[in-house]
Write a structure and sequence with these properties.
- By secondary structure, the protein is α+β, with helices and mostly antiparallel strands.
- The protein has helices at residues 29-37, 50-67, 112-126, 142-150, 175-186; strands at 14-15, 19-22, 71-76, 81-89, 98-103, 134-137, 154-161, 165-171.
- Strand 3 and strand 4 (81-89) form a beta hairpin.
- The protein starts with 13 loop residues before the first strand and ends with a helix.
């Protein structure tokens, strides 16, 4: 397999308390392929074979090149181990930009999705200037619905996707709402 290009100039690195959100690397492919080969990917179009997983990884990198934002590989800073992929997503056919999260096997239940999604949302609002963002969750994906609720998102409506079927739209608080909440908490 050939090396992925150095995307460090295109994809910013973000740091949270325990996590580093960074550009995908060739060394991430085995974790990425294992995730997409597993039942864990059933809510996002998987399982996929290695060839299709490679194409999905290329899609993730290409999203950054085409739109100037995308999803990061999330690694646990203390260990350097990839724990998932989280970030901003708005491919053709999406109703509007979203924050999405996928955790690799063994990474669930540790707050990684919530922490990384909060970091990605702050980037969307503070750097990109977004005023609104959603998360799309498959109706049977209870774990992702719980993450959306922990992020303060509220179930708004359903969206019928041509490939993935019915998805639930969770609307995140607007940046002004978050700023007002933060101001009240520190007052």
């Amino acid at each position: 397999m050939s090396e992925l290009p150095d995307t460090s100039g295109l994809i910013p690195t973000l740091i949270s308390d325990r996590l580093t959100l960074r550009a995908p690397r060739q060394t991430d492919f085995e974790c990425f392929a294992a995730f997409y080969a597993s039942d864990r990917a059933k809510f996002i179009g998987g399982p996929l074979d290695r060839n299709r997983a490679w194409r999905q990884l290329a899609t993730e990198a290409g999203h950054w090149a085409l739109l100037g934002y995308g999803r990061w590989i999330v690694e646990e800073t203390a260990t350097g181990s990839p724990v998932g992929m989280v970030g901003l997503w708005n491919p053709e056919g999406w109703p509007e930009p979203e924050i999405g999260w996928d955790l690799f096997d063994g990474s669930e239940g540790k707050g990684f999705a919530t922490e990384a999604a909060l970091t990605a949302r702050a980037y969307a609002y503070e750097v990109l200037g977004w005023t609104s963002v959603i998360s799309l969750v498959a109706p049977a994906n209870d774990a992702s619905a719980r993450v959306a609720l922990r992020l303060g998102a509220a179930l708004e409506t359903d969206f019928d996707h041509a490939t993935l079927g019915r998805l639930q739209v969770y609307r995140h608080p607007a940046p002004q709402t978050l700023n007002d909440q933060n101001a009240k908490a520190t007052a």
